[in-house]
Amino acid sequence: MPDHIHGILIFDKLSEATSGLSYQNKFGPQRENLAAVLRGFKAGVSSWARSKNLDFKWQAGFHDRVIRNENELEKIRHYIATNPSRWEQEQLKEENSI
Known about the structure:
By secondary structure, this protein is mainly α. The protein contains three helices and no strands.
C-alpha cells in the first residue's frame, strides 16, 4: 500500500516454568511488547529512508487489535491480502469522478 501497512505480530511468551526465571515483571519484559516492537520497526525504516534521502515520515501512533481465535485470524489475513485491490478500486473511482 502506498500510504499504510498491515501486519500480524504473534507474541508467544514463555511461562515461568519454561523460561527458568523465578520472578517476572508484572508487565513482562518491555522489549517484548507491541509498542517496543513498533518503535524498533519505525526506527529501522526511518533510518533506511533517511539513508536513501526519501521524503518519509510516520503517522503518529498505530491501531492494534487482539486476534482471539483462528476464525478472526483468517478474516484479518483475508482483509490484508485483498487490501491492495480495494485501494486500486478506490483510486479508479476517484479518477473517474473527476
